[in-house]
Write a structure and sequence with these properties.
This is Zn-dependent hydrolase. Keywords: Hydrolase. Pfam families: M20_dimer, Peptidase_M20. By secondary structure, the protein is an alpha/beta fold. Helix content is 34%, strand content 22%. It contains 12 helices and 15 strands. It has helices at residues 10-20, 38-53, 98-114, 140-145, 151-155, 165-171, 198-202, 240-257, 293-314, 333-345, 361-364, 391-409; strands at 57-60, 66-70, 80-85, 122-127, 187-193, 206-212, 214-223, 227-228, 261-271, 277-278, 281-290, 317-326, 329-330, 350-355, 370-375. The strands form 4 sheets. It has a 6-stranded mixed beta sheet with strand order 1-2-4-3-5-15. Strands 9-11-7-12 form a 4-stranded antiparallel beta sheet, covered by helices on one side. A 3-stranded mixed beta sheet has the order 13-6-14. A hairpin with a 5-residue loop joins β1 and β2. α8 packs antiparallel against α9 (293-314) and α10 crosses α12. It is globular.
Length: 418
Amino acid sequence: MTMATLKTDPARLERFLTEIAAFGATKRGGVTRLALSDEDRDARNQLREWFEAAGCETKIDRMGNMFFVRPGRNRGLPPVLTGSHCDSQPQGGRFDGILGIIGGLEAVCALNDAGVTLERDLIVVNWTNEEGSRFTPGTTGSGVFAGKLDREAMYALTDREGLTFGGELERIGYKGETDFDPRPLHANFEYHIEQGPVLERREKTIGVPKGIVCLRWYDVEITGVPNHAGPTPMNERKDAVYAFARMASEIFEIGLASDNVVATVGEVHPSPNSRNVIAGNLHFTIDVRGWDETETDRVCADIEKAVRTHAEVSGTDVDIKRTWEVERAPFNAGLVSMIRETALELGLPALDMVSGASHDTVYINQFAPSAMIFVPSIGGRSHAEVEETSWADCAAGADVLLNCIVKTCNDPEGVEYA
């Protein structure tokens, strides 16, 4: 059996993905499995059960990151890492993140079926709080693991109910007592749905991203004057919603006019949020991303200027804070080439591209050779209940992942990806 003929079991992969989607399942086929929720805990318990049944060791660090280790022949060699996250957006999709973990699980099972012992340890990871929808910022577990986020500061993060990250991590029973550090890593792969329309439109099965775009997040607070909607003349209002409407419109236009930078207003929270009260306050968020960092920062500067200008024109005050900033992540050229060549060996049409979404690999890439494998998102939809990827494409991506794992895990001592 040659490396490129090693295949995963599509039926088993589908079963794993279907069963894990029950944790936090929504009526319309999606998933609400917020980080450190009961649903997240239950999914974690199921993953642990499956991986341990497949012969893996489980390690849990102080951020709740779960590492499932399949021992290799030479445990002194740097291991190969793969995986993703199992938390979701509210009313999110059933493939985002979890596909990368289940793809790793299926690779372990396929290796067991074939009776293959790899030279190096294979580690499949479940990173804590990638989405950042309940506790912001996202990619929290991988960011602390990489030394880029402070663990105690992350423990202090609160959700909208005032519950802390650290407290919830302890409540669900996934606050590890010690850290697990398998570094140096030989290679890192993250298998993921594309979350965009490109692969489907180009009729390609495998996406081979050269890297992840840079990212800037803002939190903006507009302060106006609350007042009665009836008696207050239009020309005497300091309306936070009006100020926001002007800002949001120009933010969209700035993104539209840019060179491949996207700008998104996501959360909007007016106060008091009553139909007959002029809003005195409004909090909203901005998400800016692009491959070219210079152009992205130019867009950010234009957005900041526009927000302040519209606040002044509308008679409101504004406080704009950049709450998260991540540099773009160019992937390891050798691993990118390996993914492309492996897809070719398997007869799968592949496309070079970039990742417009951020992933845990953005942090792991900073200290370990890394690359990602994408499969199509039907209709380009993600972060929504309608998110869908065909079972055939899920299996095709898992086959590419499996064979890249075999190649890198069997690299002899001394082989490195520069």
